[in-house]
Amino acid sequence: MDGKGTETAPTGANMSNRSFPISDPICQTEEAPFAMVVISKFGVFDYILYGILTFMATVSLLVFLEECIYIYKKVPANKKSLIVWVNGAAPAIGTMSCLGMWFPRSTMFTDMFSGCYFAIVVFKFLILMVEEVGGDEAFLKRAGKYKLKISTGPCCCCCCCLPDVAITRRSLFLLKLGSFQFAVLKTAFTIFSIVLYTNGNYDIKKISADGDAIWINSFVGVLTITGLWPVGITFIHLKNTLRTIKIIPKYAMYQLLLILTQLQTAIINILGSNGTIACSPPFPSSIRGYMMSQQLLIMEMFIITMVTRLLYRRQYDPLPEEQDANENTRMTDLTQSP
Question: How far apart are CA 234 and CA 288, in angstroms?
């Protein structure tokens, strides 16, 4: 800081060092700057950074398109669309993050699109696990003599007293319904939020009890937990059966997507909203947090895209016949139930 009340700091989420007044009016607002305002403040480092991140997002999208061609040529028809949806999660989120990085005023909408896409992927991943076994009939045939252990995360991991549930058509339907409601209601609430935003009622930065955003986001959080629960139950039941097709690393990538797009983003945005992340014109604190989140997601989604390509690019041979001793040690045989 000098005698004129200025200090040196980055001008953006990763902008070049410049001097600006502490009382800069931009720091007193929460409005995101226009894209051309941001570009006009670019230095050499900013052009390099934005160029590299845009290149990563573009490569992720191109890799996904090439993977789609492979899937439609080599994968059985009942799995094609499911694998495309699941594989497209990281490239889609990375592309939306790239748009949000270049156009800061669009970050709310790009995050909403990413959230809706991930909600659909949650349901598609559950269906994919069932289809990898051979479909509903094959799943029921293999699992008919077992029970589902439902005391698992993220909803009931501490409720060990919950009884095991018989695997029937009804229980399989309820598992699918649990994830399907998340995909549908998350999309519906996103559309509703956009409608409220156009009327001036929805402000994502307003976290008080009289704001619409806090109630909508809280309810969506409950939907998220109930939507993830059936996927966890199904995975625990099938992880040994599907071990040969690398279901454990696939599930790990799915969980990593959840952590990065939901938990990481929420933490960074909260830090920005609280002013923990310093204001740096042309970005106020909250918007700078959004920019940091978008840039991190682009790099992370690029890595996940490459990993998922290795996991899903394979020959899809039928599973071997059921091996009673190894089907799943966490299931309970119906004949042993009291």
Answer: 39
